[in-house]
Write a structure and sequence with these properties.
single chain; 62% helix
């Protein structure tokens, strides 16, 4: 099971980084989303979840589950959803303003470098 989770975590991270390095805005947003999913899975697995144990200390239970990783992941999901919504609206506004979704910081028009306009 650990190999499956580690492979999924590596796949999410690598796909997120690859998409973030693209020159278009919407793949960058999807890459950020995949990277936030990878971080959520990492936090969730680092919490050492135990099955069929209560999240509170009880004198009749054999042990307890730490509720902190679950709360952190739930908070991170809500924050990443809001961040994604804001980024989509900003990218949509930039696309409607410029007419394209390139993320080129040096040259915003389509003329080649050194060429006449």
């Amino acid at each position: 099971m650990e190999l499956l989770v580690a492979s999924a975590l590596g796949l999410l991270t690598s796909a997120g980084v690859y998409l973030m390095l693209r020159q278009r805005t919407f793949p960058v947003i999807v890459g950020l989303t995949l990277l936030s999913y990878a971080v959520n899975v990492f936090i969730f697995t680092a919490g050492r979840l135990t099955v069929n144990l209560p999240p509170i200390i009880d004198k009749y239970a054999n042990g307890y589950t730490d509720p902190l990783p679950q709360a952190l992941v739930l908070t991170a999901i809500v924050i990443s959803f809001g961040m994604t919504a804001v980024l989509v609206m900003m990218a949509l506004g930039a696309y409607l303003e410029a007419g394209h979704d390139k993320v080129d910081m040096n040259d915003t028009d389509e003329t080649p470098k050194g060429g006449a306009k």
